[in-house]
Amino acid sequence: MLAEQRLxxxxxxxxxxxxxxxxxxxxxxxxxxxEFKAVNYLTTLLKEYNFEVNERYLGLPTAFKAQFxxxxxxxxxxxxxxxxxxxxxGCGHHLxxxxxxxxxxxxxxxxxxxxxxxVVLGTPAEExxxxxxxxxxxxxxxxxxxxLMFHPGQSAVxxxxxxxxxxxxxxxxxxxxxxAGKTGLGNPLLSLxxxxxxxxxxxxxxxPLYQIQGIISEGGRTPNxxxxxxxxxxxxxxxxxxxxxxxxxxxxxxxxxxxxxNNTKVRFNNFEPRYLPMLTNSKLANIFIEASxxxxxxxxxxxxxxxxxxxxxxxSWQVPAIHPYLPLNGGSVVAHTPQFAKKAGGKDGEKTxxxxxxxxxxxxxxxxxxxxxxxxIWNEYRKRVKYK
Length: 388
Prior knowledge:
2 domains; four-stranded antiparallel β-sheet; six-stranded mixed β-sheet; 16 strands
């Protein structure tokens, strides 16, 4: 208990530094893959605290790996720092980066109380390209004993699973023509619009088991010219990866039928990687739940299916992982809104991040202090991956 008290006291001592890092990222929002200011700030600070930093990690320009200590266990704190177009940090990723940074810095300051290593892994572009997917494919988690992060949200939940996601671009092609002439056949935009209407009807029938969300990203340049091509981008989601395969098949059948009806050609392109469902490790989650309780927060321990997708899901199929949500402003604001962004940059965001920093740090410390925890965590992981 004395060591844990020292850890929490260290977080308080370092808090001005930790919160300033989050504020800097908040005040300098950058889109996925362009987070150079955030990465420079974080890596410079980590170097000051004697972390060994590997920038442009595994070939990703805004990914990094910052390591302190050596050997096993190796506890990874995952940091996100990309913003949303127009509304900035409306998903609170500056708080995610700040909490992971803060937990790691505090643990590094009391290195004499634990053995092993801590890693801050900078994972860009969660909102778009999902860098965790590529990092996982390239072996970023080979040495990882457990992967930890948090996310601000509307409630205190941790035993979550997310939806599998496939990102498909649909490209219809035809021939240029004057729009005042016969425009029914060979019109790519008509094919895309007809297909889009089918998608709407499909959602009405099968949501939330299956979901398709899309936009028309290219539909021509001028009203008096039938475009040579029309493009739509779609997210396909389902609760299980197997069901996602079925949905992808049905989706492509509908798209091909629309092309056939309008005498156009169609092709498909995956514009983002596939996200797998989040596989929360319940034994690891229980350690965070107990740590949160010691901090005065009661987590909802029920199982939740969130209606969204996480690139953390891909990580969770390689190593034991958790992705708890902690409420921002008492859960009264919805993510991806200007209201959420405003609250996340002020006192409400700071309060949530302080709690998350403390919870993540305590969870990691208890993994170092009680090696039997990791054995049971990995036993659960192996069993679930084998039979899932």
